[in-house]
Specification:
2 copies of one chain form a homodimer.
Chain A: H1 4-18, H2 25-45, H3 48-59, H4 67-83, E1 87-99, E2 105-109, E3 115-117, E4 120-122, E5 134-141, H5 144-155, E6 159-162, H6 173-185, H7 187-192, E7 198-202, E8 228-231, H8 233-245, E9 250-254, E10 258-272, E11 277-287, H9 297-316, E12 323-330, H10 338-349, E13 353-359, E14 367-373, H11 376-383, H12 386-389, H13 407-410, E15 417-422, H14 427-430, H15 443-463
Chain lengths: 465, 465
């Protein structure tokens, strides 16, 4: 489930590209002191944690199009100015406005008629059920192959239940998420092909718990749009167990979510102008919108406040970046990516020169490395800084992921893409669920992530890429 | 605050000792598969999390000499047998029996007579106050130098308040703990030298919060034993702030703790007998006792259940270790280390041959490496296994710590000592406080630690050291 050879090879490359090059010794010593200053400043005086408290506890859930999302745009612009950005501006972007409506109902109806309610939530962008709900027999499948084998004969008129567990064998939980994610993302339309009337999916969570985890899903145009929901992992275990001995078990699903007219919203952009090469931009971003079930503290309030902290720390240390440092709070990552798309479109139109784009959207825990999505020679240049980061336990440069919002810039390696990598073990306990709250975030972990980003931004702004 | 050069040098050593030695290629490939099996077994079927729930939620706090400590001895012996140890035995050890008594009272008495209660707890092994409590003026010091400068003239008859903050600049929080720990450990006696009537210490916590953190302290024989307590970090901030403008502020301390007669208790030992070299022992341990304020889930229920898990996993995978694998749940780490001392004494008396001793007592979070306390050639041998661990994000072999219980075996490198190293960022939020509960532990993180230990135990039992 791992790729040990790859990781070992990457490790050796890191060493060869950095440790044995004496010509870098002088600048490395200065840079080492500079990074120490950056880490100390953020660990001792960092403001990201307090900002995250405001954003997640006071403003709260910020689904695109919601009043809270609008409020968070204003808040972020204000915070970027206070942090010391030379200029702060908003980029207009139309975003979908999906609303959950009343709290969903998901009830198992056993063969003897007994009913059992389980934690259920509509998946993002799902259609509603009729107002009286849908009641139908449940067909459990573990993967698309099983679905296909059953075919229309066994599925028509029923509710398809995707009970694909999170594979615990993956060491990085994002790999397990990636593997299981398709049942949430395209499960409804795949089930609709065979005449299903609704679909429910086991929550993409790494543990057995009572929280349903929402998330985006996409309907295909070619098949009817059926209501789709996530049920908690404990609920999925219960339903799966019952189905073993009671194959005619039914499920009642009721949800009143709907997609309203699109709404004008904004990306928030702040910039410290470069002192020597102002046209060359180093971007660091996170996304401002969150799912509606939680505070969106780790996904991705953390990324936003870390980016603001980069500017605050550089200002506090009177570091004037040679290249422009631009921080971006993207709108609408969760259900549309309209903000990321708009940013790249404007960058192209305005012929902006991004030398690197970095995103923090993998959680607020202890950083351990950076994902690099770029050409091999650029990877080598970044990895040559490995030894500067080792004292902060930043050691892993083997990941390839950067971030969804910046993907419109970095796809095809047009712009070198970088993703902050953090400890992933706890992330999918919180992800898209009511558990993603400020209380789950540790101040030092959040600040170490901000310091790691600020350090890499500093090096990129100093040396280019 | 770091030692970058050391870490970088250690890194290069790791690579040179392992990655470039083709002669190890064959066994490494087999070992790589074996480690994959061990990690998969524990991540998918691991029982440590369930065991920790029983030990911490059902048995609870287990201070030496308490009924819960006695109960935990029975529980551990049973669990070791169930896990598949060939033999399980108890080692008798006399332990101190200190009891906290009634809940402590700590009250700031301002110069206008207003009172403000702050979270306070007696330090372990402290004497009680008189039953009416102690009321005296507070003298704040930040370190021993300041204390010495004040001298008897300013200190006599007063309560010394050690307000030495946790230094956030340390990346590994154990370094900050190590630096600040002396004010808790010997602060009372140092204050008593100058005639103080009691001492209070800022809790050794990495954040500002409302929990007092207890912990051991030691009286010198040469000075009077004065009552000593910890106050919460928020309480310390408050008191420190008030003292700036109201230097004659008083403090009321009342505690009824006492040291009773020593009690017979036990280390619990389980063993899988080695198939080829049964006399050579690989030890893995944790400590069973905990402070009385919390469940002791991370300190150190985690270590105990991880050791039990090593045996369970090896048995489940039908791995017969060539050398004997011995797991030990030590008693009385927190306030006396009697268990560790007794174990080493018996090992010496019985002429047992320990080839390595490992301890997990640094928390239940994601593992990142092992501390190595041994000769350089033995370090090199262990580090030659680095590449086997990289797929599991175990990368750091630069730490030198092993564990307090095993220190009687490993001091002076008599027996090579190894300490499981885990993410330290959150540890001192929980340490010795009411916050150290089962709910704070993540199943995957706990199990990754167990798998890392089981893997290293497997390699040591196979190849020796």
């Amino acid at each position: 489930m791992n790729s040990p050879c790859f990781k070992v090879a990457a490790f050796i490359l890191v060493l060869l590209s950095g440790a044995f090059l004496p010509c870098r010794a002088q600048s490395t010593m200065d840079d080492s002191l500079q990074l120490k200053k950056i880490f100390n400043e953020i660990l001792v005086h960092g403001n990201a944690y307090r900002n995250l408290d405001e954003l997640s506890s006071q403003i709260g859930a910020r689904l695109s199009g919601s009043p809270q999302a609008a409020k968070s745009v204003e808040w972020t612009a204000k915070k970027m100015k206070e942090a010391g950005a030379d200029t702060v501006w908003l980029q207009e972007v139309m975003v979908p406005h999906w609303v959950r409506g009343e709290k969903e109902k998901g009830i198992i109806i056993r063969m003897d008629g007994k009913k059992q309610s389980i934690p259920t939530c509509a998946l993002g962008m799902s259609v509603s059920t009729p107002s009286e709900g849908i009641t139908a027999e449940v067909v459990e499948v573990h993967d698309f192959e099983e679905l296909k084998k059953m075919g229309q004969e066994k599925i028509k008129g029923k509710i398809v239940f995707y009970n694909h567990p999170f594979d615990q064998r993956f060491v990085n939980t994002f790999d397990a998420y990636g593997e299981a994610g398709k049942y949430r993302y395209i499960g409804a339309s795949e089930a609709a092909r065979y005449g299903a009337v609704a679909s429910i999916v086991r929550s993409l969570s790494s543990s057995d718990n009572d929280y349903p985890h929402t998330g985006s899903q996409r309907y295909l145009d070619s098949v009817p749009k059926i209501p789709c929901a996530a049920i908690s992992t404990n609920g999925a275990n219960l339903l799966g167990g019952i189905l073993k001995s009671e194959p005619k078990t039914k499920f009642f699903l009721k949800q009143s979510c709907q997609l309203l007219d699109s709404v004008l919203s904004y990306n928030v952009v702040g910039e410290m102008r470069g002192s020597e090469y102002p046209r060359e931009i180093v971007l660091a971003g996170g996304h401002l919108d969150s799912w509606d079930l939680a505070q969106g503290a780790t996904d991705d309030g953390a990324g936003v406040v870390q980016c603001i902290e980069i500017v605050r720390a550089l200002k506090a240390l009177q570091i004037k970046p040679k290249r422009s440092v631009r921080i971006v709070a993207f709108m609408n990552e969760e259900n549309g990516l309209a903000g990321g798309r708009k940013y790249a479109e404007l960058a192209m139109k305005n012929k902006e020169q991004h030398i690197a784009a970095m995103e923090s959207d993998a959680g607020a825990t202890t950083p351990c490395g950076f994902g690099l999505n770029m050409s091999d020679d650029k990877k080598s240049k970044i990895r040559s800084w490995n030894n500067l980061f080792l004292p902060y336990n930043i050691w892993d440069w083997s990941w390839g992921e950067d971030g969804a919002d910046i993907s419109f810039l970095t796809d095809g390696q047009k712009v070198p893409g970088i993703g902050l990598q953090v400890d992933s073990q706890n992330y999918f306990e919180l992800h898209h669920a009511a558990t993603d709250t400020f209380e789950q975030v540790n101040k030092r972990e959040l600040h170490l992530g901000a310091a790691a980003m600020a350090s890499l931004v500093y090096l990129l702004a100093t040396y280019g890429l």
